């Protein structure tokens, strides 16, 4: 009887301990949440120098971050930290960031209003065709298929919001994907699309994207 009682107590203790550990593990695995106020303080202390007030950069080669999906910002910063995306300016800035600071920055920039952009009308009219329908003759897919008709992107898929983005930055990004200088796109999607774009198509679609207002 005593032996059976000891076995019962031992098993019960193990079950309770396992349940507590599972609960603790579940809590540890719970998704973290970014703090926009903490992100604002960090952004104003570091990121503002290049990305501008509220994430609206003034220099056309530096991207606007205002209104960007937080999931996309988190992915890019983590890719910089892990070496999956290389940039001589961004890598040393991202490396010291904690995971919480990454979430905070993403939460802050996602809530900021993006400054509108203006496009060159002639180039934008050519770029609209590429953006909306692609180029069936050369196999260029429509940008709208992933980024949406108004450039709003898809947060869960981590497809970025690109409306009103600087044309110079978009052009450089497409050129980097085309030349495999950037390779952190899921399943090589952007590299495959950009590889089929001509210089003229890249310039035109970049202007069209800059003029999208949403």
From TrEMBL:
Keywords: Electron transport, Heme, Iron, Metal-binding, Periplasm, Signal, Transport. Residues 34-113, 122-213 form the Cytochrome c domain. GO terms for cellular component: periplasmic space. Heme c 1 binds at residues 47, 50-51, 90. GO terms for molecular function: electron transfer activity; heme binding; iron ion binding. Its main location: periplasm. Binds 2 heme c groups covalently per subunit. Heme c 2 binds at residues 143, 146-147, 190. It comes from the Bacteria. PROSITE patterns: CYTC (PS51007). Pfam families: Cytochrom_C (PF00034). The keyword Signal applies. Residues 1-22 form the signal peptide. It is found in: Periplasm. This is Cytochrome c class I. It comes from Thiocapsa marina 5811.
């Amino acid at each position: 009887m005593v032996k059976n009682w000891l076995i019962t107590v031992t098993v019960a203790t193990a079950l309770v301990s396992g349940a507590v550990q599972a609960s603790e593990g579940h809590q540890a695995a719970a998704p973290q949440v970014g703090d926009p106020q903490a992100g604002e303080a960090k952004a104003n202390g570091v990121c503002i120098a290049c990305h501008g007030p509220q994430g609206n950069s003034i220099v056309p080669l530096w991207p606007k971050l205002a209104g960007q999906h937080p999931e996309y910002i988190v992915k890019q910063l983590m890719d910089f930290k892990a070496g999956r995306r290389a940039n001589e300016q961004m890598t040393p800035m991202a490396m010291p960031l904690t995971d919480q600071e990454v979430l905070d920055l993403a939460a802050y920039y996602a809530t900021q209003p993006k400054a509108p952009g203006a496009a060159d009308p002639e180039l934008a009219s050519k770029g609209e065709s590429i953006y909306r329908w692609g180029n069936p003759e050369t196999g260029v897919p429509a940008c709208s298929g992933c980024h949406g008709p108004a450039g709003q992107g898809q947060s869960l898929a981590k497809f970025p919001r690109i409306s009103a983005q600087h044309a110079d930055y978009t052009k450089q990004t497409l050129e980097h994907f085309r030349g495999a200088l950037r390779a952190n796109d899921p399943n090589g999607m952007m590299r495959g699309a950009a590889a089929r774009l001509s210089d003229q198509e890249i310039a035109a679609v970049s202007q069209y994207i800059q003029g999208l207002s949403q």
